[in-house]
Amino acid sequence: MTDLNPLLARLAAAGTRITAIERPTDLAMLKASLARIRGVNANHVVAMDAFGTGLVLPEKQGPAQLIDLTGMARIIDLDADYALTLVEPGVTFRQLGAEITKRLLPLSIDATVHPDVSVAAATLSRQFGYTPYGDRVLMQCGAEVVLPGGDVVRLGMGAVPKSRTWQMFKHNFGPYLDGLFTQSDMGVVSQLGLWLSPLPPELRALRIELDDSAAADQLIDALRPLRTANVIAHNIALTSAAFDRASFGVRGSDKMLLTTALTGLPKTLAVYWPMIAKIIAETPGARMLPDDNAPEWTARKHLLAGQVLPGAPPPVPFIDFQAPASSGILSRAHEVLGATAVEYLLTGRTLMARVLSPEDGPGLVAAAATAGFGIVSQSLEFESAARTVRSKSALAQVHKRLRDALYA
Length: 408
What we know:
The structure is a single chain. The protein folds into three domains: 5-70; 73-198, Uridine Diphospho-n-acetylenolpyruvylglucosamine Reductase, domain 3, CATH 3.30.465.10; 202-381, 3-Layer(aba) Sandwich (Vanillyl-alcohol Oxidase, Chain A, domain 3), CATH 3.40.462.10. The radius of gyration is 21 Å and the shape is globular. It is 33% helix and 23% strand. β4 (75-79) and β5 form a beta hairpin. The strands form four sheets. It has an eight-stranded antiparallel beta sheet, sandwiched between helices. It is built from 13 helices and 18 strands. It is an alpha+beta fold. It starts with a helix and ends with a helix. Residues 13-199 form the FAD-binding PCMH-type domain.
């Protein structure tokens, strides 16, 4: 049985005291758990792993019942031909990676730093990873959801009787509803489909040391055209020494590091690699580091290659912000976060920057909002403060009306 005591302590600190725990192991038990909780008109929260990844706090602070989904841990489908999987919410990256290895499948996973995080939770909380499949929500395809009233809904092609394309095609007729169940408590996801990546013909990881924020600004601007053109298909991570030490336990350099990778046919990489090397050489304060076996670099290469880390680093509480990555973005972020350990994950067509911070302090939320950062996802410790920032928008009011309708 998963040890949830650390999570219970964090929930209590965030104003949610757990009075009972439901531990369903299948869909019927999950429906029964929701019915019991609804029958006593109690708040509930849903945990898919021991860390509370993607957990959404109740609207009102106070007592609540916890639905522990770590016992729903079946890999329902794993198809190498179509590079897809269908999993229950308790399946971890470690478990999925082990199954792929056991079956010798030519597939990779966009894994989190900690291997025991739930695959579904990392996706539903809209976390980003490091590979070309790092936008996990974009790679989600199909889901089964239990609504607050007990109805079971299959999203996408799962709604079509006898459909054989549930994990192959994301959309069905009518409105696209999958997003309603990400970063929300509008339903409990009991199955989640996900696209996986075939192993690339070749992968070359690169690590760039940066003297200061000015060097990082200039390099990001230079790499943006290659990222938006998908020459660099991997996400780009810019990390501080403090963040790497917190995540991997060690870091040889105290300077910022930018890491990413190129994938493709060997002849293609033979053209692209010199282009990247030239950009780095022409950026003052930037230098490419050798591909050595430094512990934090070995771990990062595992993630860039779509491999699950073999070890389990200590979990780091974090908060995510994002803002367009443009000249000066790093300086503004530094002003907001001060000396906090940060990681910028540059992803997507506009090179959005995600900041991961292991420092607690609700003031960071307000400071980031004032500086123009939008809150993407946050730890339990920050959720109340984050709600205050986002609750005033018209979009937040639409979310509230939808939630109220589902709970009616």
